[in-house]
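FAQ: What does the model actually see?

It sees only this:
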Amino acid sequence: MSSKIHRIAISTGGGDAPGLNAVIHAAVYAATAQGWEVYGIREGFEGLLAPDGGNEGLVKLDRRAVRNIAHLGGTILGTTNRGNPLQHKSNDSGGRMEDRTDELISRFRAAKLDALITVGGDGTLTIAHHLSQKGLPIVGVPKTIDNDLQSTVVTFGFDSAVSFATECIDRLHSTAESHRRIMVVEVMGRYAGWIAIHAGIAGRADAILIPEIPYDIQKVADHLRRRISGEKSYAIVVVAEGAKPAGGGISLKEKARTDHVERLGGIGETVADQLQSLTGNETRAVVLGHLLRGGSPSSLDRLLGLNFGAAAVRALAAGKSGVMVALNPPRIEHIPLEQAVSKLRLVPLDGNAVITARALEISFGDE
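And it is asked to produce this:
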């Protein structure tokens, strides 16, 4: 494939994550070293599906354009959760959903682009798999702060999110102690509790509620009462947004949206209200939410993004397509996209994080 490559494109999709610009930076440097031209697709795949035929959706990327972006948060290309060409809202008045992947590929080729590097989570990579099956040369780069992609040891953005969440929990210890309160900290984690458990352990929380372990709120309250009546006058609880009570469901802010994605929200407030009622202690909820996505990437996420961007170009140069670059220390490997999105990486109940938390007498609300 590499002998046929002259122009490649880069797109970023899904929610933003610290490290996206580092990927773009490295990919541009590595691609121009191959003698290739590089273009960025604005707003995920939307840049090629715009009514103007995609001409305004492409931006030329050279070393000058990306020289000073590796340390910046967000993405210079913009990102979207709405640009799914498999289920794209039609332009007619009916608002029906249609598959526009053939149109997207046609516009891609009309722009004389030879291959695509797309950066995203399971949704973006699922789209990439379908585009690859239709013949588009494509390499995926894994991106999710939730760290829930099974085929790579870690994804960029996760370390930055955990570091910020831990700093917030550290700050809440002093105010919780001053007011003798229970503080409930809600963090991101729709299906997997990686951010909650890592930040909760690092920040020395008293309880951590994650999607993988359904909780009994009475058991959480009993545990906190023992803590507050004993060695401490306050308590910290970390809750992943996808945590759910035993026999119950996840907490939803919106049950249905135009893109058919449920929007989670409210679990922190729910848990705080319940704990105040059960313990009699004043309880407050803090929702970190999108603060976890913002800001500059940590050095670890920056390095991982740079490694992934360069590795994606090497994959294309080696003739690879339909694969995702994945970290398997000490190497970066190429995983088929179909395999990469087949299973989420959840917190293992017998893993070191859970074992360590239990040894530190942190409650998961299950015992």
